[in-house]
Automatic annotation (TrEMBL):
Catalytic activity annotation: Transfers a segment of a (1->4)-alpha-D-glucan chain to a primary hydroxy group in a similar glucan chain
Enzyme Commission identifier(s): 2.4.1.18
Organism: Pygocentrus nattereri
Protein family per UniProt: Belongs to the glycosyl hydrolase 13 family. GlgB subfamily.
Keyword set includes RNA-binding: no
Protein name (Swiss-Prot/TrEMBL): 1,4-alpha-glucan branching enzyme
GO cellular component: cytoplasm
Keyword entries, A-Z: Glycosyltransferase, Transferase
Length: 670
């Protein structure tokens, strides 16, 4: 806290104010001046000389030198042409030539647009100065987040790189229909290596040109806002690509410009460079980078990737976090990185009060999502990363009859009090090559042949369909204060993700999302899509994510039953693989009449329609499991095999009455 306040005081004193310092994208790189001139400013402390070359001077290397300034800064002014037009035209190619014992052609760290031709190995810096900049408006911050994690390039069933325009026209309407109120865009910052999934950033101020132009991305954000959808950006400030010619690495000819020198500046597992967060100019660069994406493109917040690597000098490599405070406080903590994250959150929340920040941290650092004035790091949410790992571990290693209800609920509810979490059953991590989506773990090769509604469900498909719904609803309703889904997984996308690379002959077969599956009426993917949609719309209406912690009343290991209340809804889950229950008593806080709100056994969701949807339940003043009221329900097993069971009740939940009656919210298992 003191270090953060000290850094702020220095910025106010030496940089003309915090606001000006964090908007350095308006003074670095290339800037249009009054009268049509252009001003170039760079920070290259290790360079002996700096020059600008490009289309504008027929690539003359030494004809346009920068002038050295204090603290390793360099400036160059180019007057307008005789007709008053800028000396460098829109879409012209440029390079910075840094001389440090050799000629080094570089891209400005502040470049706003870079592209690569098919016959080129590296990217080119393209001067982006369109005549009519794009404008947009923002929606209000949602009360809770239902996030649709998305990658523009794979957002199409075609075996190709999809575009911003495709996402705007084809994906955003799906997101809206599904009831997600937020998209989280991955791989937007330019990255030379497509298969890095956007996590080896080369150009921090440039939107990836492989998907389209900057204006195409602005149109995407604007359209999302018009639909009431908040837009978050996946931000990678934890490391940078080691590329030199089209990245930040060795920009001035040294290994210490932007990064730590020597081995401290290299991530041994990722093969990337690590920022020197204690550097004044690195702070300028990274804080201004955050503001650039908010100011220029209209993003509403950020998911900060790889926070664990930033927080600790060991970067989390080979470390098992036990939960002891000694894991989180000591000389192994990188205080410069901690202060930088505090400054990042201070900047965003001070200047943009509605801004949303999410931390990806596997360590469980205390205070990550507490206010900065309390000594916290100031994030709004943290990702509940243990939850998807738990589901994958269960599906891979545990028989259905051995599922541990206590362990599942503990994993879903084990979060730091007062620190909000984004929970998810699976994200892009679980779908990457080497792993599989939940649907593929559940149904595997049968998804290729047995997902048609024109044939009877096989036992594998039946089990997979039902568990897919239950896992997602339990995670959604019990696991956090926000929810995340990776694109396509809402309808049980099969297989895995694998980007084109030498190892797969540069194939795009697995680098796509097969929305055509959900668009085909006779395939069961539509049923999973419908359940996900109605689950989100139910949350939107009743607001369980923003209602506080759930109260678990039944956690029966033998019966494999979980019952809990949240947002005045009652959720009932039966995970038993073979036993259905009739006249099963469940506890409720509120007396009244309950009715079914969501029933996973409905035919439209791939269920068997064995539950009477209009059934109503009246509570009795019979205390049960530390609740003052209770009633009897009947519900079915996950893989309903006992055809003699007559009492089939969906999992239910009670909602705040709109008509004087409590609503039973079914999260029934089939």
């Amino acid at each position: 806290m003191n270090l953060k306040m000290t850094r702020l005081a220095w910025l106010e004193k030496d940089e003309g104010g915090f606001d000006q310092f964090t908007q350095s994208y308006q003074s670095y790189g290339v800037q249009m001046q009054l009268g049509g001139g252009l001003l170039f400013r760079e920070w290259a402390p290790g360079a002996h000389a700096l020059f600008l070359t490009g289309d504008f001077n027929a690539w003359e290397k030494l004809s346009n030198p920068f002038t050295p300034k204090a603290f390793g800064k360099w400036e160059l002014s180019l007057p307008p042409k005789a007709d008053g037009s800028p000396a460098i035209q829109h879409l012209s190619k440029l390079k910075v030539l840094s001389i440090n014992g050799e000629y080094l052609f570089r891209i400005s760290p502040w470049a706003k647009y870079v592209t690569k031709t098919l016959d080129s190995v590296t990217y080119d810096w393209i001067h982006w100065d369109p005549p009519h900049p794009y404008k947009h408006q923002r929606p209000l911050r949602p009360r809770c987040l239902r996030i649709y994690e998305a990658h523009v390039g794979i957002a199409s069933p075609r075996e190709e790189i999809a575009s911003y325009k495709n996402f705007t026209l084809d994906v955003l309407p799906r997101v809206k229909d599904l009831g997600y109120n937020c998209i989280q865009l991955m791989a937007v910052l330019e990255h030379a290596y497509y298969a890095s999934f956007g996590y080896q950033v080369t150009n921090f101020f440039a939107a990836s040109s492989r998907f389209g132009t900057p204006d195409d991305l602005k149109a995407l954000v604007d359209e999302a806002h018009s639909l009431g959808i908040t837009v978050l950006l996946d931000m990678v400030h934890s490391h940078a690509s080691s590329n030199t010619e089209d990245g930040l690495n060795h920009f001035d000819g040294t290994d210490s410009c932007f990064f730590h020198a020597g081995s401290r500046g290299e991530h041994s597992h990722w093969g990337s460079r690590l920022f020197n967060y204690g550097s004044w100019e690195v702070s300028r660069f990274l804080l201004s980078n955050l503001r650039w994406w908010v100011d220029e493109y209209g993003f509403d917040g950020f998911r900060f990737d790889g926070i664990t690597s930033m927080l600790y000098h060991h970067h989390g490599i080979g470390v098992s976090f036990s939960g002891s405070y000694s894991d989180y406080f000591g000389m192994h903590v990188d205080e410069d990185a901690v202060v930088h994250l505090m400054l990042s959150n201070y900047t965003l929340h001070k200047l943009y009060p509605e801004c949303i920040t999410i931390a990806e941290d596997v360590s469980g650092m205390p205070g990550l999502c507490r206010p900065i004035q309390e000594g916290g790091l100031g994030f709004d949410y943290r990702l509940a990363m243990a939850v998807p790992d738990k589901w994958i571990q269960i599906l891979k290693e545990v028989k259905d009859e051995d599922w541990d209800m206590w362990n599942i609920v503990h994993t879903l509810t084990n979060r730091r009090r007062g620190e909000d979490s984004i929970c998810y059953a699976e994200s892009h991590d679980q779908a990457l090559v080497g792993d599989k989506s939940l649907a593929f773990w559940l149904m595997d090769k049968e998804m290729y042949t047995n997902m048609s509604t024109l044939i009877a469900m096989t036992p594998v498909i039946d089990r997979g369909m039902q568990l897919h719904k239950l896992i997602r609803l339990l995670t959604h309703s019990l696991g956090g204060e926000g929810y995340l889904n990776f694109m396509g997984n809402e309808f049980g996308h099969p297989e895995w993700l694998d980007f084109p690379r030498k190892g797969n002959n540069e194939s795009y077969r697995y680098a796509r999302r097969q929305f055509n599956l959900v668009d085909t009426e006779h395939l069961r993917y539509r049923q999973l899509y419908a359940f996900d949609r109605d689950m989100n719309h139910a949350e939107d209406e009743y607001g369980w994510l923003s209602s506080g912690l759930a109260v678990v009343s039944t956690l029966d290991q033998a019966d494999k039953v979980i019952v809990f209340e949240r947002a005045k809804l009652l959720f009932i889950f039966n995970f038993h693989p073979s036993i259905s229950y009739s006249h099963y008593r469940v506890a409720v806080q509120h007396a009244g009449k309950y009715k079914i709100l969501l029933n996973s056994d409905e035919v439209q969701y791939g269920g068997h329609g064995r539950i009477q949807q209009d059934t109503e339940f009246c509570s009795e003043p019979l205390a049960f499991r530390n609740r003052p009221n209770s009633f009897l329900v009947s519900f079915i097993s996950v893989t309903f095999t006992d055809c003699k069971v007559k009492f089939l009740l969906v999992n239910s939940s009670n909602a705040l009455p709109k008509n004087g009656n409590h609503t039973i919210f079914p999260s029934l298992l089939m």
